[in-house]
Amino acid sequence: MFDKKMTIDNLGYVGDIAIDSGQAMVGDPCYLDEWNTNRGEEWDLEGKIGQYSYQGASATTIKHSMGQLGNGRAFVFSTGYGDGMYPVYISFDENDRVSKVVIDFIGDEE
Which of 4, 10, 76, 101 could cysteine-pair with 57, CB 3.0–4.6 Å? Predict the structure, then answer.
């Protein structure tokens, strides 16, 4: 799982994240039962910045590129080039706990 040969600043490559909405979110999955997918609702972002929902995430990233959702239930942010596959890297502390996660949304500009 952790490939020590592929590193960026002492981070090991662990896989890729698929993005299909030009945004990503980090949050504790124990709150997912409160997540509003907004399925079947009219697309209307007015007043939804910061709501713990798909439209709330979209409104937040469109207006601010990033922000907190649902009083800290998650954090959402725009991705570098929008949709695509992006590499994920992690590092561990001295107790083998994940200490850092990096998603490379831009990559080398060479």
Answer: 76
Considering the domain architecture, whether residues 28 and 64 belong to the same structural domain is answered as yes
What token pair was written down for 5?
């040969």
CA distance 63 to 7: 34
Q: What span, in angstroms and rounded, lies between the C-alpha atoms of 6 and 11? A: 8
The pTM assigned to this predicted structure is 0.84
Quick: pLDDT tens for 33-63: 999 999 999 999 999 999 999 999 999 999 9
Nearest to 74, CA basis, from 46, 20, 32, 13: 32
**Same domain, yes or no, for 71 and 31?**
yes
Strands (E), the chain: 3-8, 11-19, 23-27, 66-69, 74-78, 84-92, 98-103
Range of the domain at 88: 1-19+83-110
Please state, in angstroms and rounded to a whole number, the distance separating the CA atoms of residues 101 and 92.
Answer: 9
